[in-house]
Amino acid sequence: MSEEKLPLRSENNSDWYNQVVLRAEMADYAPVRGCMVVRPYGWTLWENIQSALDQRFKATGHVNAAFPLLIPKSFIEKEKEHIEGFSPELAVVTIGGGEILEEPLIVRPTSETIIGHMYAKWVQSHRDLPILINQWGNVVRWEMRTRLFLRTLEFYWQEGHTAHATAEEAEAETRQMLDIYADFAINEAAVPVIPGRKSEKEKFAGAARSYTIEAMMGDKRALQSGTSHNLGQNFAKAFNIQFLDENNVLQYAWTTSWGLYTSFIGEIDMKQGDDKG
User: Fold this and answer.
1) How far apart are CA 156 and CA 135, in angstroms?
2) DSSP label at 44?
3) Is residue 126 one of the residues assigned to a domain?
4) pTM (2 d.p.)
5) Where do the H-state alpha helices sit in the chain?
6) In degrees rounded to 5, what are phi and psi of residue 74?
7) Neighbouring residues of 34: CB distance < 8 A, sequence distance ≥ 6
8) Which residues pair with 222 in a beta bridge?
9) Which stretch of DSSP H or E encloses residue 224?
10) Count of CB atoms within 10 A of residue 254's CB?
11) Mind listing the pLDDT tens digit for each residue in 208-265?
């Protein structure tokens, strides 16, 4: 870092944080408002996070895949709770190749809808379940107030999406992934966290139940660090993810989603940093 003295963390935590990220060359401001450029040091930290989590995911039977960045607007509208939760933050593409698109496309804020569409194609029998897929990628949410790593318009993350034959299996998956996040945060990143269930008001739009790990920062504030959602049958019904059970009865699947993103780099900085950087 440069010789110029950092702002005292105790006097201006926000300015201290921004200066640490910039002067340690972890990230820089992009020319698009609210976006950032992740510099090599910052990306190395993200690669380390990816590696630690990916090992844990694969050890519990999950596999990686990739789904499109662009989502038909009609997919978002199928899940009423989903569109209500995300419509203020959506980035919408209306022109492609110089032509007005027949249907607007949403730059993904999250992938439940398009993955739900694909799962409906892939699932016919209880033998097709469970599906345990994780995706590494980027998403866009049109945030009004942004901070490097902690909250940006575009950010990088992993999002797991699973489908199950029973409610019990879906709840076990949701809790398992929360435990994986807690284990990673505490034992790999040395960031103390408190796991728990989010309130009805704060849960993910479209979820039956949402769980979170909250990281304890040096300024005595908590930051949401990773979330795990039991989606019940909400998305399965919206996207017709159905299967024949062992008794040959048609049932809707039970789905989950869970994610942790590059904000965790900011959380490491805030937890491990001091007035010297």
Assistant:
1) 11
2) H
3) yes
4) 0.91
5) 13-23, 40-59, 73-78, 80-86, 112-122, 167-183, 234-239, 263-272
6) -65, -30
7) 142, 143, 146, 152, 153
8) 216
9) strand 222-230
10) 28
11) 999 999 987 666 677 788 999 999 999 999 999 999 999 999 999 999 999 999 999 9
Between the alpha carbon of residue 141 and those of residues 28, 86, 200, the distances in Å are: 19, 8, 22
Peptide bond into 130 cis (omega under 30): yes
254-261 and 154-164 strand pairing:
antiparallel
3-state secondary structure of 16: helix
pLDDT tens-place string over residues 26-71: 999 999 999 999 999 999 999 999 999 999 999 999 999 999 999 9
How far is Cα 215 from Cα 202, in angstroms, rounded to an integer? Answer: 17
Domain extent, residue 113, equals 17-69+108-272
Cα-flanking dihedrals φ and ψ of residue 71, to 5°?
-125, 130
Residues in the chain: 277
Residue 199 is classified by DSSP as P
Q: In DSSP terms, which residues pair with 177 in a beta bridge? A: none
Question: Are 128 and 16 within 8 A, CB to CB?
Answer: no
What total of structural domains would you count in the chain?
1
C-beta separation of 135 from 158 below 8 A: yes
Task: Give the strand pairing for 131-140 and 63-64.
Answer: parallel
Q: Is residue 194 part of a domain?
A: yes
Q: Is residue 8 included in any domain, yes or no? A: no
Q: Evaluate whether residue 90 is within a structural domain.
A: no
CATH number at residue 54: 3.30.930.10
Q: Which of 227, 146, 170 minimizes the C-alpha distance to 193?
A: 227
Residue 185, CB half-sphere, CA atoms under 13 Å: how many? 31
